[in-house]
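Entry for the shared binder. Reason: the reviewer on the internal report wants the predicted structure included alongside the sequence.
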Amino acid sequence: MKLFKILLSFALAVAVFWLLNNKIGTAPPLGKFFNPNTGFYQNEANMDFYTLPQEQLQDSVNVYYDEHLIPHIFAKTNHDLYFAQGYVTAQNRLWQMEFQTHSAAGRISEIIGEAALEYDRGQRRKGLEFGAEKALEIITKDTETTAYLEAYKDGVNAYINGLSSANYPIEYKLLDYQPEPWTIKKTALFLMNMTDMLAGKDKDMEYTNVINLLGKERFDFLYPDFFEGMDPVIPQGTEWNFENVETPEVPEDYFYQDTIKAVMEKPHPDNGSNNWAVSPNKSKTGNAILANDPHLSLKLPSIWYIMQLHGPNSNAMGATLPGALGIISGFNTHIAWGETNATRDVRDWYSIEFKDPKKDFYKYEGEWLPTTKRIETIKVKNGKIFNDTVVYTHHGPVAYDDTFKADNPLKGYALKWTAHLGGNMQKTFIGLNESKNYADYVKAISGFVAPAQNFVFASTEGDIAIWVQGKFPNKWKGQGKFLMDGSKKSNEWQGFIPQEYNAHIKNPERGFVSSANQTPVDSSYPYFVFNDGYDTYRSRVINNFFNSKDKFDIDDFKNLQSNNFNLKAKELIPTMVKALDSMELSETENSYLEVVKNWDYYNNIDSPGATISTIWEQNVSKLMLDEYLNSEEPMSTPFAFKIVELLKYYSNDPLMDIQETEKIETAPDLFKLAFEKTIQEVETFKSEHGTYNWGEYKGTYIGHLLRDLPAFSRFNVPIGGDKSIVNATSKNHGASWRMIVEMSTPPKALGIYPGGQSGNPGSSHYDDMIDSWAKGDYLDLDFIQSEEDVNPSYNILTLKPQNE
């Protein structure tokens, strides 16, 4: 992303001379922005390296930057290690760090104006800041974690304090504001934002609307808790050797009938990940091997930042999250770890009845209990102040009421969420960074509350394992699938599943562990678990791969992470093709049908068959689910596996009927109608682009965090895959980090993400990994064991105490 691209984005604005020193709405004063001494020109140069005195340091810290701008931090104390991590992260990602915490706190209106007001209100009403405050109550009881967070904070602020306005990251100049001091609360806010992103797609409201429309019998058919043929995270047939398991009784009248008119925007529905590990006896080298690739929105700057942290208690490397301590997905000298979403329901919604429109009291067990109120003051960029009163019950914040997306002054909907309980997520990752074996790993993750994650593990000792970890309510069967009556005690969470009874497995007989957001367990697990949108395709491709042969190596892992096989299409497309009569098709339609028939079910870049089949599937779904798509109330459609099952085996199901026609359609009718529309769309696309190959049609792009600013984004990234495929790269979502670690002594590791280490669009390291990532290539991560081994070509940043 070079200077001419930035200039191009603002060329028109330069022409309007008289505007150069005046704001236009939320735009910055353009004279300030283009000033050669303080404007964006100052952001073009790459980073300098130097020796910098810091009064907070206990000893000297050396930061060695390799050719990819990956920092390798060597510190003699943990305090200095985390101080340096904060300093270095801010040096490369300051604007991103702060913008994401503003997002969590509901403060985007301060930056871009009233357009963000509803978003900010939603963040406040979900209780993200409330949850961060609860987390801080737990964190500050742990003196070690608090000390490390304070050191990190001091490092970030040391960098900020050394900045002049001329050197602010370019986004501050674009939006005409300045960085504020970092606090440990900002780290807590950042982690709450991640928790919401990974656990915020609950469907209680939508399911309530569906069951009201369809009835319980029909709902249970379309939305089963378990699907036949699934391959869960913990293998089927696993014996649960739990003693004294207690599960609550189902209340007689738990179902609560209501109609919800609106819901807040949810996190991206495809947020998820893959991870797996093979044991030494399934590895060609005799060492355990582990892999992880989190699937998130593709953004610049990247959500991840690679670094090595070498301190007195650990030597860890991998991907961290700018704003958080330690390595999040990575390895140290002894173990490796990675995470995927565990698809467990940890957010429930309760209908609240208020005594009167003032909302001072709410009904509970026949009595009126007092509410508490939190005044959320939202500052808007134009100088306005918006005060939003959020009512709290013992269930949690009333996110929806007559002032926000609801219309009854005597009713509201409260959110109960494990993230509001408080927790010390940082302690988990500090513990993982320092772990030496399986017992240390279990201890580190045991206090992890939310979001629910599948923690995969491998060690140099040869152990592999996976834990489905989080603090999980011990629910009665069906609890949390629908909106619940908040006035009844029977609808409360009845305690929590004992942590040691969380689903897990160590060194399974099959020689591998894996997760891809599929169901964590089968129906034999003694606690209630239900389907909340888990994967049904990636997981089976992965497990089939590891069952396909006896031994695997790093190249196999690379190929699997970039695997474009479309299992969903293979299971559905033959049925769709069979329903078409070539005699009824035009010559053009038959030519496209032949392309589909000859397709190998791989969504590779150059595949025309993938394009036709994907559009065809989408058009079939639109026809089939028209009653959902046309509904005035928010509703959640059946999951992909159920839709495929219906199309294949229930061709006369009522869902096949198109509402706006007099005819009663069947699945073959939908296939034919959708194919006609598909060919029209493909022909149009081909005429406009000259091709209809999958890579061109999908058009993967990686947009800037700030509204996908074109000059700071990358478009038409050549990569295959799609959602429901192991290489889960769709239009702007996919593998945000890929890591492979072989547990030799010391471990050997590969890693890459679709971005670059620098957050500065003018830097050569802003997006330099994208092309390699798209091709399925990796960086060899230089896991330095001691400073004596440092490559002499690396640049050095030295932080030293003030008095040296």
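Summary line for the report: The CA atoms of residues 473 and 496 lie 4 Å apart.
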